[in-house]
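Task 17 of the worksheet. Students: predict the tertiary structure of the chain below and write it out as structure tokens. Keep your answer in the requested format; marks are given for formatting as well as content.
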Amino acid sequence: MEELFEACAAMRQGHLSDGAIKRMTSSLQKRVGAHPAFSDAEKAFLREQVQQVPRAEGAAHYAIRDLAIRLSADYLTRWARCVDAGRFTVEHFARSVAAHMLDAGFSGAYLHGFIKSWLKVPEPVTLAQLCEALQSQMIANPRREFDVLLAFVTIPKFPNGMPDAWLQGPDITAWLRANGFATAGVRAQAAMVLRMEARDTIGAAQAARSESDRYSARALLATGEALNRVPWLWVKGDNAPAPLKEDARGVGVKELFREDRVFSPDANQSVDAALELLAHLEGSSPPAAIAGGWGAIEGLLADPSDRASAADNLATLVTCSFPRAELTTLSYSAQASHPDVNSHLAGAQTNRDRCRILAQMIVDGRLPRMRSLADQAAVERMSKLLANPGPELRTIREAIGDSFHRLYRQRNLVLHGGRLDSVALAASLRTVAKLAGAGMDRITHGHYVQNLKPMELVAKANLGIALASRDNPLSCVDLLETS
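Model answer:
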């Protein structure tokens, strides 16, 4: 709802189309309709506001914003009531609650540590109690300012001398010691103290990384020289420095390594160009990652008359990759946990064979109960998919497609609207990075192994989904090999 409120204003400025907003409202209504935390009255009210495309600064536009504010105020408490009443599914709960906390500004590492600490308490904790604990964290940790030290190995160039607020030499060491940090091995000639807004120290470090990257980009353009930064950040209140380089977003195209194509001289021009653009999605600043990531997708998969079609085409490829990827990982977990499963899989020559064997065991109900809760959830997902492949695959494709369409909207806001602070910028990267890598991995495999153009692979994927049925559930393993 917050994203829709923002998008309506962008549409009036010409940065988003009427069709993009209609797609958003349709997706929003489907999600809200299946969401147990909304009351029936709230669902009806939202439907009324989006019967027509909301116009910026109109009553419906502001009503959407007000409903979003109302819901976010007690979202976790609402989920606690849903859990107590048994009106929820575990994965919907997990996705919704985690996304809410991340969008509220908490870092993933902080949340992981907090939730893990609750698993170690003597008495079992219910999901409702966890919701209440997370709600308390929201109240106890509002967005606040953190001081973050950004240091430089060499002094950057200044036309009018170093600013008075900067630290040099002994002052840097004194700041670190005063805030409880070790100084051994720190070699810095200059430093600045950034004041970043966040909910936790890890989030403050993430914000400081983005700020540091902006400074680096400006310096390169202004002087032709990159900033020589110390590879650490120090957040006041934390007990250890944070790496300047942010953790990777998980974009992986492993096919390049498997087929020994990293240093191949005969790379395909269009695929290779797309991979170069996709690399920005892995390690660049959020705006550059959005622009580069979508550029890679559009360059290979867009219809010339409809750029947004690339989102649906990539979603189709990722959907067809999902069953085998899930079954492959699950097969190795099952093999390690259960000797009888190991005996069935021992003769499998390929991952495809492993997946077919495991899928048949799931269909027949012969797979022993997995020890890991994550593996149990995976078995439930695959059981549901194999029981009715066609509708389930289309549901998965629609959900993934929504994520890629959001990426396209964010790209338009960045490139056409100059918006670097969209409410959905971080969420979009969090959602699509690994998915885009999975889709590009299939395109790379299709090109180098199957000798297929990207759109030929999309056609094969569309056919595979269209023909998937409960009469032949094992076809889910071969969705991109349909002839």
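Marker's comment: The beta strands are 144-152, 167-168, 190-198, 229-235, 242-243. The two ends are 42 Å apart (CA to CA).
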